[in-house]
Amino acid sequence: MNEQSSLTVLIAEDGATDRLLLARIVREQGHSVITAENGAQAVALFAELRPQLVLLDALMPVMDGFEAARQIKLMAGQALVPIIFLTSLSEEQALVRCLEAGGDDFLPKPYRPVILAAKIKAMDRLRRLQATVLEQRDELARHHGHLLNEQRVAKAVFDQVTHSGCLNAPNIRYLQSPYALFNGDLLLAAFTPTGEMHVLLGDFTGHGLPAAVGAMPLAEVFYGMTAKGYGLAETLREMNAKLKRILPVDMFCCAMMLSLSFERRLAEVWNGGMPDGYLLPAAGGEPQALVSRHLPLGVLAPERFDEHPEVVSLALGDRLFLLSDGVVDTCDQDEQLFGVERLRQVFARNRAPQHLFEDVLQALEDFRGQSRDDVSMLEISVVEPQTLAPPPLVYSDSGQSSPLDWSLSFEFRAQTLKRFNPLPYLLQVLQEIHGLRPQSGALHSVLNELYTNALEHGVLALDSALKRDAQGFAAYYQERSRRLQALQEGYIRLHLQVEPVAGGGRLVIEIEDSGSGFDVGTVLARPVLEQRLCGRGLSLIRRLSRHAEWADGGRRARVEFAWVALA
Amino acid sequence: MSDQRIDNKVVGELREVMGSQYAELLETFLADCEKRMVQLRDARSPRQLSEAAHSFKGSCSNMGATDLAELCRQLEVRVMEQPAHGIEDLISQIRCEYLEVRPFYVAELERVSPQAARHPV
């Protein structure tokens, strides 16, 4: 603080001698002086010149010092304009009146320059302190407004990203607080090109902006990889690696991710640190808990991360119910948790499935007396795949430069098959063919089915008959994981051939595996329903492609797609 | 004049503080005194009298006229007391005291500004 600050000082004093003397003393101390002979003049001069300090005689003609002080303080508002009363008043009552009128100090006569200088300095300190406080208060208010605005913008941007997914699909219901982003809660859903639905419910550590910053990169990876056709495992691995790389050590994201295939009626489930999710069977009976078996995303280094999902089979009308810890961790007045048992009771009591969220909220309210703002819930119903129309893919290029006469061969061997999913790369290559784009959903599904067959039944020699019931289903996927880890030899060969034909073009996909093949005739003779559950998806392939055939004892499949040239 | 009715320490400080304006201060004070004498004589109410005594007391004390300030203080208080007696006597004491100290201030003025002293206000 500059102790030498020069002030404008108003002196109001009716005695000419005293006024002259005081003005001289104050000027000598380096301040500017304006003088008034009575209270009314003092008030008018104050309004006009806004001096920073006022020396006021108590007894003056026209308007006395008390009234002038009141008016000056009123005009000064929140700023501190110190008023020093000039008085030789010795009665207590008069001194009290000075203070009540807004006086901050007294200066007795005879005036002593040293005393006056000290008082002006002290008052200037107070005045500047008050000014600083006001400035900081205003700055705080500005920052607060700024912060709120930033949060609004962040939320708007984030909502854009979130809504690029398929949360509005007819079989999804969700409930999320408008403040979810700043609670660290995150809800994402999108279709893969093959029509699988990927869903993620996440919960970042912390609150406020720090909890929100991780959401963007996570959403980006989720949507980007899902759109390119990557599966649950690859997407999780990438999300974990990304968060591990960018987040500070004490920040991570509890997450539950599902990959739902309505075509094959199965769901891959990965839960890292979220509360149990539930599979609510359409047939009634005990909900099946989807338990956390992993550490949250962003904790483990990529090489230690375990992306293996559990696989559960689904029946038409089953519902998957996911929730944030705001539900089970809600406390009542005695710090008791709402807990899993109470939630299960809500499930048991729920009669109208469409009111499950409301029932849960009501139970929370009854339990606690007030609702929290960090409760997220998500419910996905298992429906016929035809009722879901994945959004059409949008291409940015014109297609004029489509390559139309080429072939491509790959051989993927054991070490590659263990960890690498080549489909997204292949799909990207095929997307260059403009004429195929209207069929890309079917193409993706068929390629996916062919590759899965070659890997699981061919290379890994798994028997699809295992998948007949729920236990067998789980056993099948455990065995798949075990055999894949142990895989030492084997291959999948893939040959793509694109050629122009009159009026359009043709794609031939040939896929060959190192397995022992299968009896094509027997499998194709089974009823369609049975084929869907455990029959290698052959009917799907036949339904979606123009032509499909198996050769070499089922070891080699050949599928054809054709298109008509665009006008 | 070095009598005790004038506080020489205060006067010394005035000279120092006022510098070039010292003469102006003396002139102003002498004019003020004349004005106050008239006010004391013509006051129409105890309140007017008290206020005049209060103001006069202030300037006297600032100018180092210690005894004169003390007499003004007595008058200021006495006027507001009931029954008010001895007022006339106090006013005449103030007049006498003023006549006693006036030459000191005139002499001061003469010393620092001979022209101004020849035409007192």
- Extract low-pLDDT stretches of chain B: none
> In what order do the strands lie side by side in the largest sheet of chain A?
2-1-3-4-5
Round the Cα radius of gyration of chain B to an integer and report it.
Answer: 15 Å
Per DSSP E runs of 2 or more residues, the count of β-strands of chain A stands at 20
Highest CATH level, the class of the largest domain in chain A = Alpha Beta
State the major sheet of chain A.
5 strands, parallel
Named CATH architecture of the largest domain in chain A: 4-Layer Sandwich
Count of individual beta strands of chain B: 0
CATH topology of the largest domain in chain A: the name is Phosphatase 2c, domain 1
CATH architecture of chain B: Up-down Bundle
Query: What structural category characterises the helix and strand content of chain A?
Result: alpha+beta
Which structural class do the helices and strands of chain B define?
mainly alpha
**Share of residues in helices of chain B:** over 70%
Summarize the helix and strand pattern of chain B as letters: HHHHHH
